[in-house]
Write a structure and sequence with these properties.
The protein is built from three helices and twelve strands.
């Protein structure tokens, strides 16, 4: 019995290590749907970094994975706690300043909205974030689901690993 345990012990350690890494550090995630086009394409497989936000703050324009009731969703952080965010005339304003969104397709259309129209408060409350998809016309984001709690953000993602012709970091 002891000999069998000695033989399978390394495999048990490997399996436990892989499970711990997937649960707490990194895991693959698949992009589902068109909401992040043209930055991310339906079917892209990315690496979800689950540990960075334990040591660093969430930053504006990070691509994050949000836990949802049915499946995780991938969106871009636009508004941080304390921000006043609005879109009017197809332009994004944060704290009254127009923001250039280089990651959007040139023909992208963003319907008008404000934090107040989404949540009933003027500024994003502490512990909440406003997230949008890059393909604004096809995205179920904060405009539809409301502000996102910090606890709903599983981590950030920027590295696409499949398909091979799309490998690389996305901004």
């Amino acid at each position: 019995m002891r000999k069998v345990f000695k033989e399978i012990y390394p495999y048990i350690i490997i399996i436990i290590s892989v499970l711990i890494i997937r649960k707490f550090i990194v895991t693959p995630i698949r992009v589902i749907g068109p909401s992040m086009m043209h930055t991310l394409i339906d079917g892209d497989i990315m690496i979800l970094d689950k540990i960075s936000y334990r040591f660093k703050n969430i930053k504006r324009f990070d691509i994050v994975v949000i836990s949802s009731l049915d499946k995780p969703i991938i969106k871009r952080v636009i508004g941080l706690p304390g921000d006043i965010v609005e879109s009017k005339n197809n332009k994004l304003y944060i704290n009254g300043e127009e923001i250039k969104e280089d990651y959007l397709d040139g023909d992208a259309i963003t319907s008008s909205f404000s934090v107040e129209s989404i949540s009933g408060v003027e500024k994003i409350p502490k512990g909440y974030y406003l997230v949008l998809g890059d393909n604004r016309e096809e995205s179920q984001d904060s405009r539809a689901i409301g502000l996102i709690k910090r606890s709903q953000i599983e981590g950030k993602t920027s590295l696409t690993v499949f398909p091979f012709n799309r490998i690389g970091f996305k901004k």
